[in-house]
Write the structure tokens for this entry.
Amino acid sequence: MNKHLLSMADLSLADIELLLDTAVQMQEVQHRDVKKIPTLRGRTVINLFFEDSTRTRSSFEIAGKWMSADTINISGKGSSTSKGESLRDTVLTICAMGVDALVMRHSASGAAHQVAQWVDAVVINAGDGTHEHPSQALLDAYTIKQHHGRVEGLKVAIVGDLLHSRVVRSNLISLRTQGADVTIVAPPTLMPSGIRDWAARDGFALTYDFDEALAAGPDVLMMLRVQRERMSGGFFPTEREYTEGYGLTRDRLATLMSRNERAVIAHPGPMNRGLEISPEAADAASSVILDQVSAGVAVRMAILYHLLAGEGNVQ
Amino acid sequence: MAPTPEGKPSPNSDPGPTTPDGEGEGRVVLTDAEMARALRRMAHEVIERNKGTDGLVVLGIPRRGGPLADRLVAMIEESEGVRLPHGTLDVTMYRDDLRAKPIRALAGQSIPPSGIDGATVVLVDDVLYSGRTIRAALDALADLGRPTAVRLAVLVDRGHRELPIRADHVGKNLPTSSSERVSVRLAETDGRDEVRILQGRR
């Protein structure tokens, strides 16, 4: 495993399996009365979030705290960046205080890679622009394994705003490494450019037709959020029309369950209920959305354990 | 980091069957028959000390404490007709030398559903050496609940304690020098039962 966790491409299949196995052990801690283990005592983890986040930031914070690390949250708003400090100066300042790990989210793709070159601390990419979100892909894999017992050979459909999604990029790498059979679904305007070459190279399918993907009876249906904050308009005519073509409506939920009764519905959150996912689907028995959140803490504990508990990472 | 082989709790015992040494090397201090006899005696001692089987929970410390705990439980079942709640206790995350070594994969833990509150926990390990593994185990237990008492059963006590810890039940006391290594092999993990003393090269 590399010193940093910047991209799912940094992780081999063995690394992924090691992290997921460790997360199983960590989830046991999550169910204890006293949720505290001394493993990272004396380590300092800074959550540096230049973009809004509920679950990623709080789950990294909880993960660190349960393992006895000191965790501190810094958000872009209210930090010196709003006074015009550059990203480089901000991270160098923070690291000068003696920090062991930086968990970072930034709106610029590649921000975490750049920061990893500037600092000695371990850098964990918690989302960089529309590029990657490795810990999300790991918790998705964990949740899939929890429900299906494996990832290899499963049919996974990923549906929605692929253009702006870092979750889909990390998941495509992760699911391919783990041998899943992936189909991505989006309207043409929300397909990233160059995706056909990528699909041809990495062997996943792509379609503009959600109903066709549903008819194949996927084992996992991963719905992605329509990222309105990154859209300057023009990607689809109206929200109603988007829901019509790409929303997981009550009818589509029924189709999915009739095609594959073991199918599970995942969503990285936050959800736009009524837009990409109907309340019926979000709260369905086959929905694993809250399991994903719960897995998030265990998986992030596993990440912190492997990157921080040892003597520093010698490759 | 390549996935590290499973961490061995005792800093003294050998790192597993993959190491080229130990094959026919050193001297055998416990044969399979002797090991079986020692374990049988320990099983009886555990019951005698507890005046029966009430409230006992047997927890092995991975790796080799796990199979040893299973054997003690099986022997107690044979003589007393009671199958004690048992499992394994992973102490990796409680070790004081985590930072001094490459990262260890977690060994896996299973605590009986009845828990350890109010129980008399018998910890089982293969070799007692510095006592640091047992210190970590006591910390791990404290986070899981409050046992009435904790006892320690080890197959081999080789001395050289660094902490005020002693075993209640010992299979064999083995005076060693700290340059020697004690290699415990079990049928479950290594294909055969045997304890050897090796000249350390580490």
Summary: Residues 1-22 of chain B have pLDDT under 50 and may be disordered.
